[in-house]
Amino acid sequence: MLKIAIFNQKAGVGATTTSLNLAAASQRKKREVLLLDMDPQARLTEVYKHTGLEAQQHLFKFYQDDTPLSDLIQPLRNGLHLIAASPELMKVDSQFGRGPATLNRLAHGLAALAQAQPTLEVVMDCCSLLGVISLSAVFASDLVLVPVATDYLSINSAVKMDKALNALQPVLKRKIQRRYLLTRADKRKAMTVEVEQEMRRLFGSEVLMTKIHEHAALAESARMGQHVFEYDGESAAAQDYMALFYELQDVIKQLPRSELLAA
Ligand SMILES: Nc1ncnc2c1ncn2[C@@H]1O[C@H](COP(=O)(O)OP(=O)(O)OP(=O)(O)O)[C@@H](O)[C@H]1O
Ligand SMILES: [Mg+2]
User: Fold this and answer.
1) Which residue's CA lies nearest to atom 23 of ligand 1?
2) Average pLDDT estimate for 37-51
3) What share of the chain is helix, strand, coil (3-state, %, to 5)?
């Protein structure tokens, strides 16, 4: 089971857009994909609300009643699978604490799911707070994908993320594999070029070659309750996300095997 956490402590950088459309690209390539909405704001869940999601099936139940993750998966009409979020996720910290038991719970839940569905790929859409929910996604993941919008402030957020992930490594006793994805890129803007140069100077090969450009289709498709492949599979936005899928295939091959075998 491959598990990717999509996370940046800066809000509005394209985390949810990337979760949805990367999952869709993987599914186009015949992968079985589970989207895990880990944001109390439930923006990803909202995209599919109109499709008749079961309102009582959401991730908080896993924490509250020990409901197995497999029971919370809702199949979507487009072939993707979703575990929905709800505002109650905000309460996980206060109700269950921030100790190792809570932090590792998701990893254990996913390990149980992997027993039954070893080929499932899991994409976790995190919220921008570094709370227990986002941390547990990082703990459970094989790879953290950090979307970085191409504006100057985003460089600081990437540096902050790097420090936060480094600080967690001694706790996890392993390197946290991470890649930075430049989003909202605009070739015509000097800022895009400068931010890209600086990101590559700071983080080298951890910055993916693929960039997600500014595309109106990404906002419009989500508004219409679709991923961009449903909206327009030939669009430049769909091509960007397919390129991301292909590049990540190479990244995944290079991950230490222990990380992938750790279920
Ligand atoms: N590449 C892009 N081109 C155009 N619009 C985009 C792009 N990426 C994201 N957006 C739009 O920007 C807004 C924020 O994107 P998104 O919700 O994916 O970010 P986020 O990091 O998940 O934000 P939050 O912190 O609120 O969860 C959305 O309206 C989305 O449609
Ligand atoms: Mg989001």
Assistant:
1) 12
2) 94
3) 55, 15, 30
